[in-house]
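Anyone opening a protein record will find just a pair of labelled lines. A complete record is shown below as an example:
=====
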Amino acid sequence: MGSERVEMRKRQMQVHQETAASVLQARHRMGNTPTNASNACCFCWCCCCSCSCLTVRGEDETVQRSAFEHRTEGTTNCEESLKPTLEDARSWSTSFEKVMKSAAGRSCFRQFLRTEFSEENMMFWLACEDLKKETNKTVVEEKVRQIYEDFISILSPKEVSLDSRVREVINRNMLEPTSCTFDDAQQQIYTLMQRDSYPRYINSSEYTDLLKNLEEPPPEP
C-alpha cells in the first residue's frame, strides 16, 4: 500500500506540473505573463514543487492568511456551539441532505469526521460555501488561492481526495478565479461524504448517544 501511495503522489505531481506548464504557456500567448512566471507552481498556486514561494511569504500575505483563518475558525466555533433538537437530529437519518442543511447537523457530523481523520472534507465544503457568497473580485481571488493551498495542494496536510479530472478542471479554472472555481471538487467531496462517512455516522455510537441525550428530560432545578 505504501509503494502504491508513493506512485499515486508522483502521478499527481506530474499532472500538476504539466497542467501548470500548459496554463503558463496559454497566459504567455495572451500577453499576460505574470512577473513570477519563471516558476510554474507560483503561477498556478498549486505548490506542486519546491520553490521559494513555499518558504518565503510576504508580510501582507501572512496577514491576509491569518485573517482568513480567523474568519473560518470563527464560523466553525459558532456552528459547533449549536445544539440540535430531537426532531432535527432524528431527521438526519433520513437523508444526508438534511444533515448538511442543518448548522447543528454539520457541526455534529464534522465532529464525527474528526474521529475518522477526515474533517478536512467538511472544512473544504464549508470553505466553498463561504466562497460562493463572496462578490468582491479581489476577495474572491484571495479566498480561491487560500482554498487551493489549504485543501487542493498535494503538499497540504489537509489535502482532500480528488480525481485527476477534477484537479485538471481546477487548474484550468485558476486562470480566471471565480466563486465557482471549486464547484466540481465540492460536489465530488459532498458525494464522498454522503456515500462513505454518512452511513457510518448514522450507525455510530456518537449519533446513538446524541439521540439518547436529547430524549432524556432535562434535570429538574
In short: Residues 26-80 have pLDDT under 50 and may be disordered.
